[in-house]
Design a protein that fits this description.
Elements lengths: L1 H4 L1 H62 L3 H5 L15 E3 L6 E5 L6 E2 L14 E3 L4 E4 L13 E3 L4 E2 L15 E3 L18 E3 L6 E3 L12 E3 L4 E4 L13 E3 L4 E5 L12 E3 L4 E4 L2 H4 L7 E3 L21 E3 L12 H4 L6 E3 L5 E3 L13 E3 L4 E3 L11 E3 L1
Parallel strand pairs: 2-4, 3-5, 4-6, 5-7, 6-8, 8-9, 9-11, 10-12, 11-13, 12-14, 13-15, 14-16, 15-17, 17-18, 18-19, 20-22, 21-23
Antiparallel strand pairs: 1-2
Family: Belongs to the polygalacturonase-inhibiting protein family.
GO biological process, one term: post-embryonic development
Keywords: Cell wall, Glycoprotein, Leucine-rich repeat, Membrane, Repeat, Secreted, Signal, Transmembrane, Transmembrane helix
Length: 390
């Protein structure tokens, strides 16, 4: 009877013992698996570290080679460039994970030399290059095409010569492009469809504006001022529906302002002064209702134009000066704007307001007229202008 009464306790002991052994086996299996995973992962981590170190050394070597070929005084400004880890150097930013150089910013560092000793292919992850306001010279090397991830390129205010390499058109990730002192605009720039800013101001650009620029549908800011560009303004620029700024000042552009510009409904700043433009139509500017600044002086405009059906309510600056200006534009809608602070004509102009202008209750903040001959009956209705000078 006693042995039978102890049987449940014996069974419970056996069950506990079996459970214990099973638990030991499971834990042993888990530990073995973890060790196995560790043995696989460790080499991977180790390999990553080796790749990171190798990448750093390759980029450091390329930068140091470029440094040694800069003028001696320039090298002193890069005294931190030493060793094999460029991520701690002045003007260099790296990716935290892989330690690869992503940003090269040496703007205003008094650098003098060329770019030909800079091995661009050594920087596969470079996103931004800013070398503006230095004294870099020579041509822009075509191997810049290796910067396939580049989104910002600023080489403005240097002393570069020669043409803009067509290979730049292959940098399809480029969003912002500033450049100075080159000769022609390559048509291949039309391939950079994500470009939002193209600034080629104060270059030595010659030839015509390539119609391919009209393919840059993302463009917001187009600045080609102070060059020697000739020919007409391409009608294809009318395709740039996101454009807010168009600077074509101080070139030798001729012909009529194309009516396609009237389709740039987002345009706020239109600068066409100091060219050889001969004609303007209502279609070319009449629908630019967001226009805040319009400069057209020092051209050869001579055709009659009326804006009587248009109202530039956002216009803040209006500069238009040309011989026989009264043959060029009627001011009714412009001077009736409540927001227009300036209406200016250059000193060599003949300017006239039509008689109906004297009946407009002018709400301009300041009206400055500098003209060789001025004709208009200045009536008392011009009473709310805070400044009016002749």
């Amino acid at each position: 009877m006693t042995s039978l009464s102890n049987k449940p306790l014996f069974n419970q002991f056996i069950s506990s013992l079996v459970f214990f052994f099973l638990l030991v086996i499971i834990l042993d299996f888990v530990c073995s698996s973890t060790a196995s995973v560790s043995s696989v992962t460790s080499p991977f981590i180790y390999t990553n570290k080796k790749v990171k170190v190798a990448e750093e050394r390759k980029e450091a070597k390329a930068l140091l080679k470029w440094k040694t070929n800069l003028h001696s005084k320039s090298q002193s400004f890069l005294s931190s460039w030493a060793g094999s880890n460029p991520c701690n150097w002045v003007g260099i930013n790296c990716d935290d994970k892989f330690g690869s150089v992503t940003h090269l910013n040496l703007s205003s560092h008094s650098l003098k030399g060329t770019l030909h000793d800079l091995s661009f292919q050594s920087f596969p992850n470079l996103l931004s290059v800013d070398l503006s306001y230095n004294s870099l010279f020579g041509t822009i090397p075509s191997n810049i095409v290796h910067l396939s991830k580049l989104s910002v390129l600023n080489l403005s205010y240097n002393q570069f010569t020669g043409i803009i390499p067509s290979e730049i058109g292959q940098l399809t990730s480029l969003l912002v492009f500033y450049l100075a002192a080159n000769r022609t605009i390559p048509a291949s720039l039309g391939n950079i469809r994500n470009l939002t800013t193209l600034c080629l101001v104060k270059n030595q650009l010659s030839g015509s504006i390539p119609h391919e620029l009209g393919m840059l549908n993302s463009l917001i800011d187009l600045e080609l001022s102070t060059n020697n560009l000739t020919g007409t303004i391409p009608a294809s620029l009318g395709n740039l529906r996101n454009l807010t700024t168009l600077y074509l000042v101080k070139n030798q552009l001729s012909g009529f302002i194309p009516h396609e510009l009237g389709m740039l409904s987002s345009l706020t700043d239109l600068e066409l002064s100091t060219n050889n433009l001969t004609g303007i139509t209502v279609a070319s500017v009449g629908n630019l209702t967001k226009l805040a600044c319009f400069r057209l002086f020092t051209n050869k405009l001579s055709n009659l134009i009326s804006f009587e059906q248009n109202n530039f309510t956002q216009l803040k600056v209006f500069l238009i000066g040309t011989t026989h200006l009264y043959k060029v534009i009627k001011f009714k809608s412009i001077i009736s704007s409540q927001e227009t602070p300036f209406a200016i004509a250059t000193a060599d102009s003949d300017i006239g307001f039509p008689m109906y202008a004297t009946r407009v209750n002018m709400l301009m903040r300041d009206v400055y007229i500098g003209a060789k001959r001025f004709w208009c009956v200045i009536a008392y209705q011009i009473q709310n202008s805070t400044g009016f000078s002749l």
